[in-house]
Amino acid sequence: METLRERKKRRTRESLLRAALELFTTQGYERTTVDEIAEAVDVSQRTFFRYFAGKEDVAFAVQDMAEAAFVGAVRARPPHEAPMRALRQAFLESWDELQETVEAVVPVELHLRMYRTIEAEPALFAARLRRLAATEEALARVLAEREGVDVDADPRPRLAVAVFGGVMRVTERQWCTSEDSGAELIRTLTTSYLDQVGSALTGNWRTT
Q1: H helices of the chain, where?
Q2: How far apart are CA 185 and CA 59, in angstroms?
Q3: pLDDT tens-digit profile of 116-149?
Q4: pLDDT in tens, 50-85
Q5: For 70, phi and psi rounded to 5 degrees?
Q6: CA-CA distance, 16 to 54, in Å (whole number)?
Q7: How far apart are alpha carbons 57 and 129 in whole angstroms?
Q8: CA 44, CA 96: separation in Å to the nearest integer?
Q9: Out of 54, 69, 155, 157, which could bridge 144 as a Cys pair, Cβ 3.0 to 4.6 Å?
Q10: Dist CA 91 CA 70 (whole Å)
């Protein structure tokens, strides 16, 4: 059971996180300072740095948590599932749990607004690509372990994750340019695009 001290620390961290995302999405990442985030929660800058290493750390805190949960979901898939199916089913079947994971910390709507901010802010977008590379490497190692192959000798785990990651990035870009800002559109687009991977890679696109 959580102690009073632990509960206070968690609430302070979550308050800083929500304040930071609100400021990033309303006035911009570059224009927001650590002092402003701390002031919004009525704590000191020193307190902020007890919980986060800096602005980038707080900007990606929720995404890091959601991605860690997804990696765990892939690891927990039944061993008989083929790698691409394990990735797909982990995403689709853990969708509600992933949303609950986010909602436990910040409103999903705020998390989705932050997605759009990341796409629009060059510094955040560059950081996103760097962080995605680390997540994709973790997923490749999970697949390699599941399949009993050497991730450094067998390219298939990284290839499978690269294809899946490409679908997710196409989904995010499409969602960010859509007037529909709801989370369900992400799930719908992901399902549709995953269904088209086979024909897109090996099929003939010409209609005449």
Answers
A1: 4-27, 34-41, 45-51, 55-59, 61-75, 83-93, 95-103, 108-120, 122-147, 156-176, 183-195, 197-202
A2: 23
A3: 999 899 999 999 999 999 999 999 999 999 999 9
A4: 999 999 999 999 999 989 999 999 999 999 999 999
A5: -65, -45
A6: 12
A7: 14
A8: 36
A9: 157
A10: 7
Residue 199's pLDDT is what? 87
Integer Cα distance of 89 and 40 in angstroms: 40
Q: Does residue 111 contact residue 62 with C-beta atoms inside 8 Å?
A: yes
Is the backbone of residue 43 left (phi > 0), alpha (psi -120 to 50) or beta? Answer: beta
Q: What is the Cα–Cα distance from 141 to 75, expressed in whole angstroms?
A: 10
CB 111 within 8 A of CB 21: yes
The single residue listed with the structure tokens 């997605």 is: 115
Categorise residue 106: left if φ over 0, alpha if ψ from -120 to 50, beta otherwise.
beta
Please choose, from the candidates 195, 194, 190, the residue with its C-alpha nearest in 3D space to the C-alpha of residue 174.
190
Whether the Cβ atoms of residue 14 and residue 8 lie closer than 8 Å to each other = no
Task: Report d(CA 154, CA 159) in Å as an integer.
Answer: 10
User: Which residues make Cβ contacts (< 8 Å) with residue 25, sequence separation at least 6?
Assistant: 110, 113, 114, 116, 117
Which residue carries 């980038």 as its tokens?
A: 56
Q: Which tokens hold the place of 208?
A: 């005449």
Q: At what angle do helices 108-120 and 4-27 cross, to 10 degrees?
A: 50
Residue 103 in contact with residue 14, Cβ under 8 Å?
no
CA angle 15, 95, 59 (to 5 degrees): 30
